[in-house]
Structures are given as C-alpha cells and as structure tokens.
Amino acid sequence: MRSLSSSRLAPGLGLAYVVLVAINIVGFGGGNPPDPAATAEQIRAAYAAHHIAYTLGPFLDGLGSILLVGFFYILARRAEARWGVVAPIAIVGAILVSALDLLWAGALWTAVQLALLNASAESVKAMVYLSQGILGVIGVPLAVTYVAFGIASVRVRSLPIWFGWTAIVIGALALTAVIVTSFTTTPSGLAFVGYILSLVWLIAVAIYLLARPERGTGDLAAAPSP
Predict the structure, then answer these.
(1) What is the pTM of this model?
(2) Quick check: 78 and 53 in contact, CB under 8 A?
(3) Mean pLDDT (whole number) for 106-126
C-alpha cells in the first residue's frame, strides 16, 4: 500500500512541477535574459519596471525544482534495490539541479531589489549575468539526473524502455548544450529543445504511473514492460 501511495505521489509532484514551470514561462516570461546589446542602465530600468515578473516567476520555478527532487527521489528509492549505485546518483543530481535553480532565482531577486533601490546599474547587471551564468551550468547535474535515471530504467525495466532511452537523450542534449554554450556568446538551441522534451517526458511518465501505479517499483522491475 505504501509503495502504491508513493507511485501516486511521484506523478503528482512531476505534474505540479510542469504546471509551475508553465506559469513561469507563459505568465512571467521565464526570467528572460536581457538583450546582450542592452546597457547597464537599460537592464536596471527593465528589472525595476518588471520587478513582479522577475521575482515571482523565478520563485515559482525554484519551488517547482524542489518538487522535481521529490519526483526523482520517490522513483529512485522505490527501485533502489535493483538500481544499485545509480539511484543515489540520480537523487544527488536532482538535488543539485534544485539548488542551482534556487540560486538562479535568488540572483534575479537580488537584481530586482537592487534595481528598486536604485543601486548602481553595474551591480544590477552583475547579478543578472550571474543568474545567467548559473543557468549555463545547471545542465550538468540535469544531464547526470536524466542519464542515471535513463540507464536504470533501461536496465531494470521498471518503466517502458522508451522512457529510459528518452531520458538518456534529454541528458545528452543538456550536456551538449552546456558545452556548446561555453564556446559561444548566445544560448544553444539544444538547451531549449532538451528542456521542452524533458517537460513532455515528465508528463508522459506521470500519466503512465497514474494509469499503472504498480509500475516503477523494485519488486516489479524485473517484469517486462509493454
């Protein structure tokens, strides 16, 4: 009974994460980075004028990242006996993703407060670009989480095998985006593709677990998936 309850909680957390991310992107612009050509004064003015969007949106995203940790934690712990060392790797990766996401939100919140206090434009710009730097590396633990989860799913078959391979692809895209971005001045389109794909993957996994809550457990992992 406890195992089945956790299998219902996990998809709920995953779907709640997707909802919060969607609200941030659609309602608040997702903490969009400033125009690279914008001056420090223009950045400060933009963050002061849109302080609600740049504060509430990232806060919702950060809250969602905590729910994402719960999602991966429950699934990993339920199949931990069969996953072996991969389970804690996936959990640690998810925790690091959440920590960096919260740091990103905190940096944007600080930028907004500095802008509202009419602090120096350069200090606002510095915090904004710090937040973008954090986003630039968040793909590393994200890749670790999805690849670890994907490998475990393919080996254990606690979920249909295509969930595992898709997770591995998402992780590979995230890591590739980090590498590409480190050599360019503009964000890689791979990051956006991987991000959207990860949201679709979460929705699909959540729906599957809601429909078949007995799946994803360590005890049933050996059974072939459809």
Answers:
(1) 0.81
(2) no
(3) 90
Identify the CA nearest to 62 among candidates 107, 10, 101, 97. Answer: 101
* Contact (CB, 8 A) for 217 and 78: yes
Q: Which residue has the tokens 């223009």?
A: 42
Both tokens assigned to 210: 């809601």
**Taking the alpha carbons of 51, 106, 100, 7 in that order, is the dihedral positive or negative?**
negative
pLDDT tens digits, one per residue of 27-59? 766 556 666 567 888 888 888 888 888 888 888
CA proximity to 134, closest of 156, 108, 169, 155: 108
| Rounded Cα–Cα distance for residues 109 and 56 (Å) | 9
Rounded distance, CA 128 to CA 109, Å? 9
CA-CA-CA-CA dihedral for 81, 207, 177, 187, to nearest 10 = -140
In which residue are the tokens 């599957």 written?
208
